[in-house]
Amino acid sequence: HFEQRGTFIKKLVLERAKKAGFDAGNGPDAATHVLASDCSGLGSDCMAMKRLGLTCSHLFASDVSVKSRRFINANFSPKHLVANALKRLDCGSMTGYSCGFPCQPFSRLNGRRKAWADKRTRLFDVALKTISTKEPAWAVLENVKGLAKYYPQVRAKIRAQGLTKKYVTLVVPMCPRDLLKEHARRPRLYFLMVRRDVAVKVADLVHFVRLALSDICKSMPKPLALESYWLSKTGPSVSKTRHQKAVKKNEGFQPKWVKRHAKLKKNIRSDHIMKAKLLAAPSADLGLTPRESGALQIEWARRGCPNTFVADVSQNAGRVPWGISGEVPTLSCSGKIVSFDSSTPNTLKLVSAAEKLQLQGVDLSRVTIPKGMTELDMAKLAGNAMHVDIMALAMMLAMTMVNWNKYKLGSRMRTDKTDKH
């Protein structure tokens, strides 16, 4: 299933490039790829290259998370693997570069976001400096759509590194649900950067990307049914310890969520409320706290009690991300996803971390999970990951905009010049 989708993406992009008259030097297949990444997560870029059927060597990767580094090392064995991209030394030349720099400073879900005042935004500067210094043929950067609010500062930073003259940069909003008909929502902004001196028909690149995305959206086959992603019927149990401690410590105190739930229920049809109460017992069996169980009941009732329903009950009632008809809300590191089909008894389940990885496009049969990796560790990996198929699409678009004959010639000229000196 996963390999077929990668092949389909590659085929559609190359067909669109052929229609556009791009002379790409036999395309990305003719090139020897050296891949590098910062804020690498679980190595979605390496998985994407394999899914596209392209061979590459992994020059370096970096991630602050120990678990991420263990996962990357176990599966992709980069030549250099570091914890802090800010302290990374010069590791050599590359043909492609990717970076999913931290999204918390720009995310609309973060009520305390500080934008450029947040120290984590320095990793964006590192990414731009790496591109400016090493001059890869292409680069792909990823972040949340909330970054659009800060476009003037983004453009200024790109200009300050001299990348406006060196690179063509296209900012493309992409979501696996909208473009690839995947189950999981994950709307993101992708910066597709191609070096001007090796780009094909610079004036036509925007038109090419628009038409390629249109082709993908129209022709992409539907994925397997959502149920086929589940590895178990119920999912992992969740401890109630946190709730029990809160009740003991504050005995007789009514939490804020109780009042919130009562207020929301006033605006919901009574028959929907009665039907939703049937979820209380199964929710308790899964280990959901009363607040989480109540939020699930309220959100399901507010939507008219649809047959299929998926919700992230880690959020408060009234702002719970949800989806129907096989749609899964955006996965987060701390999210608690509940799925059920009301037309079938006993289908209420918690989505496990491994299932979240599959929803992010990870083929579990082709990766190695390091020993000692807990459910929480894997959930964080899934929440931080870039969707593999969307990453494959973004990288394929960027690589197709490169004339690889020009790139090879330029590389030989640079090598000769270096040898003389």
From TrEMBL:
State one molecular function term (GO). Answer: methyltransferase activity
Q: Name one GO biological process term.
A: methylation
Q: Which UniProt keywords apply?
A: Membrane, Methyltransferase, S-adenosyl-L-methionine, Transferase, Transmembrane, Transmembrane helix
Q: Which residue spans traverse the membrane?
A: 385-404
Concerning PANTHER family, the annotation shows: TRNA (CYTOSINE(38)-C(5))-METHYLTRANSFERASE
Q: What is the recorded name of this protein?
A: Modification methylase DsaV (M.DsaV) (Cytosine-specific methyltransferase DsaV)
Q: Which organism is it from?
A: Durusdinium trenchii
